[in-house]
């Protein structure tokens, strides 16, 4: 009965983490869509038309109102709201994930490994499917003001698709392998091992992942590569903005390493008792 109550609490906490994670994901996508709509109004042609309307408003002595200005203010206000909400929801989800790990650690190492694997799966899924960075290339143009020349929203999964489409197959496959397939299979396998640790295959599976453990930092390398690429891309002035997908992806990397260590220690203790 006590175990049922305990795992019900854990199930509720994981469910709440999943809820806040999905909410952060949805808000991040809405922010991306809203930002794209705002950027579309910041091109050379659009800014020229806007400045002409501003000029007409000033010369009309209040008879003509530039409605586009009010519309832009609404979009900007909505942008700020979505950005703040997406970050806030992401922090709720990550703090819940940390709480689950801390709470489960004081229950048992096996519970920690199981819960950590579930937290890792949620974090990986959201991290891969949510934008990790947005970048705008803009330039101050005389009489027009700040004009946006290009806009890009980057996520791990979206970038893989774009790399395939642009013919960069080797790079796309490398990122797909080390940032999607291996992390996903590894986390699911660690969850399996934590639940069925008495299985004779458990030790062999963990040994396999220890052999490829030196590749575990490739996840971090991929993120770093994105950051360097985005920071240095473009001949004009660039503005980069970190998105919540990066928070989830980095959180997954940390959780994955902790769960790998706990599962390995768990199997060693089981083997010691058997001997």
Percent in helix: over 70%
Count of distinct strands: 3
Strand percentage lies at 5-15%
Strand order of the largest sheet: 2-1-3
* Rg on CA atoms, Å: 24 Å
Helical stretch tally: 9
Overall mean pLDDT: 76
pLDDT < 50 stretches: none
Q: What's the N-to-C terminus distance?
A: 32 Å
Structural class by SSE content: mainly alpha
Shape: elongated
Tally of domains: 1
Largest sheet: 3 strands, antiparallel
Q: What is the string of SSEs from the N terminus onward?
A: HHHHEEHHHHEH
Descriptive report:
By secondary structure, the chain is mainly alpha-helical. It has one domain. Helices cover 76% and strands 9% of the residues. A hairpin with a 3-residue loop joins strand 1 and strand 2. The radius of gyration is 24 Å and the shape is elongated.
List key phrases describing it.
single chain, 275 residues, mainly alpha, three-stranded antiparallel sheet, 9% strand, elongated
Short description:
With about 280 residues, the protein is mainly alpha-helical. The chain has 9 helices and 3 strands, in the order ααααββααααβα.
């Amino acid at each position: 009965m006590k175990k049922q109550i305990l795992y019900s609490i854990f199930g509720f906490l994981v469910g709440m983490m999943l809820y806040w994670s999905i909410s952060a994901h949805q808000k991040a996508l809405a922010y991306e869509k809203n930002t794209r709509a705002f950027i579309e109004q910041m091109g050379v042609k659009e800014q020229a038309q806007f400045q002409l309307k501003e000029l007409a408003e000033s010369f009309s002595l209040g008879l003509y109102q530039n409605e586009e200005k009010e519309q832009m203010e609404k979009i900007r206000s909505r942008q700020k709201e979505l950005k703040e909400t997406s970050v806030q929801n992401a922090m709720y989800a990550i703090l819940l994930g940390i709480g689950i790990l801390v709470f489960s650690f004081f229950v048992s190492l096996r519970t920690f490994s199981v819960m950590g694997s579930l937290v890792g799966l949620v974090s990986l899924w959201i991290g891969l499917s949510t934008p990790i960075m947005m970048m705008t290339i803009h330039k101050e143009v005389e009489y027009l003001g700040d004009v946006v020349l290009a806009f890009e929203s980057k996520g791990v999964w979206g970038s893989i698709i774009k790399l395939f489409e642009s013919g960069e197959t080797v790079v796309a496959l490398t990122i797909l392998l080390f940032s999607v397939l291996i992390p996903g299979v590894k986390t699911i396998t660690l969850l399996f091992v934590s639940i069925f640790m008495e299985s004779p295959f458990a030790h062999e599976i963990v040994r396999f992942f220890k052999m490829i453990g030196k590749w575990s930092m490739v996840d971090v390398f991929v993120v770093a590569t994105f950051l360097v690429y985005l920071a240095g891309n473009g001949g004009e002035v660039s503005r980069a903005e970190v998105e919540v997908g990066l928070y989830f992806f980095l959180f997954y990397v940390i959780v994955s390493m902790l769960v790998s260590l706990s599962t390995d220690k768990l199997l060693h203790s089981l083997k010691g008792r058997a001997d």
